[in-house]
Amino acid sequence: MAQRAVWLISREPGTPFCGTVRFSRRYPTVEKRAKVFNGASYVPIPEDGPFLKALLFELRLLDDEEDFIESRDSCSHINKTSVYGLLIGGGELWPVVAFLKNNMIYACVPLVEQTLSPHPPLISISGISQGFELLFGVQDFLSLSQKNDTELNTKLNQLPDLLLQACPFGTLLDANLQNSLDSINFASVTHSQKQPAWKVGTYKGKPQVSISITEKVKSMQYDKQDIADTWQVVGTVTCKCDLEGIMPNVTISLSLPTNGSPLQDILVHPCVTSLDSAILTSSSIDAMDDSAFSGPYKFPLTPPLESFNLCYYTSQVPVPPILGFYQMKEEEIQVKITVNLKLHESVKNNFEFCEAHIPFYNRGPITHVDYKVSFGQLEVFREKSSLVWIIGQKFPKSMEINLSGTVTFGAKSHEKQSFDEICIGGTAYLKLHFRILDYTLTGCYADQHSVQVFASGKPKISTHRKLISSDYYIWNSKAPAPVTYGSLLLLDLSFLQSPLPQLKKKQLHFKGIPIPEA
């Protein structure tokens, strides 16, 4: 007996959508069980928007409805049970328990531990009665002593914490939510606050909370049909909470825009006191689908005095911020290079800095460069045998820039010139370095108004975001290159000129990443 998801929807006739989702909770662990039990008849839990539209249509609560719709209103579809089937994305989401009370729609989707085609008898599905019990319990909690919208909003804000106790992992333990609220309040009142061993002192001064989100994007691009480009975002949320009191409580929420990329592989600091199960089970190993949890990500915590990393996460963004190709051809003591870089239209075109570094390993010093650049400027470091293309703070309106030229080298000196065991012959790369302030690739942000602080004084809350490049390589498409699969780097040693026996006695390192011996 478990629930896949729960919704509270306020009915608002005359508005564009005729309603608003005031609260929703999904249980990913139950959703995985549903996928196994339901088999081919499985229909995933949709986002709030499609669910709202489908439910209001089925309940005949849309303003622009026709008088009669056969698929819904015929005699064969008379509903006497408050259990519905919603047509969503080409499939039917069933069973959906829903009822309207005081302009609030209470809805949930129970787990059915068998195939859904054909529909099994309702009496055989124990999760339906549990779903009704849960929804009636939520209804009683919201209607108790409710006088105005402010009190309703307060109770809606309490629901996430109450359901953690009353319905953990989608399984109902206590339908009386007031009991859960009383136990929380009783524990907070009776618990005597003592100085914890890990907290060496208390803060005295002006209260303030600072939240900084830093995302690092990695990429390996090849411009080859037989090798897939790879990229990944790794995020870190750093906090500093200057609050008075022995054990101040803070709740920090991370949110995503509608088209944001869900956060995965989330690791949290030990000071976080509780977590939604959806946060714990979101993994990059699983294939992305419509049921992926997209926030908000709430972190109740008791912060330490010093600055700390609240959480780390990864994300599978659809495209890298900058796409490009790099071509290099050798001609005796010269090389001809061609570079094309294109900023994706969804990325903020406002850099703190943006540069492309083009090193030439295992060669002599640069003696001459003949080049043409469509944007920015090129700096030549002759002794280091490298070029730096300074792109600046913005890409042009076309979002695309090009560099081409011929580089001539002098005699090679083993004492001064850089040597690399990977970049031999035509194997070469371009490395991008950039930083964008007040921006994240996933869209993740911390809303100042969503930060809840339970301590004396009203704190000043500040939030910051930035995107930084990290190991952002574009390889010469005219030669072999190291290949990445996820986080594993596989090296094709066929292009190395050194014999393999000489390499077995030492471990190769590619830009700080250890590569296993051949």
UniProtKB/TrEMBL annotation:
Family annotation (Gene3D superfamilies): Mu homology domain, subdomain B
GO cellular component, one term: cytosol
Membrane topology note: Peripheral membrane protein
Record keywords: Cytoplasm, Endosome, Lysosome, Membrane, Protein transport, Transport
Known partners and oligomeric status: Probably part of the adaptor protein complex 5 (AP-5) a tetramer composed of AP5B1, AP5M1, AP5S1 and AP5Z1.
Family named by the database record: Belongs to the adaptor complexes medium subunit family.
Record's protein name: AP-5 complex subunit mu-1
Source organism: Lynx pardinus (Iberian lynx)
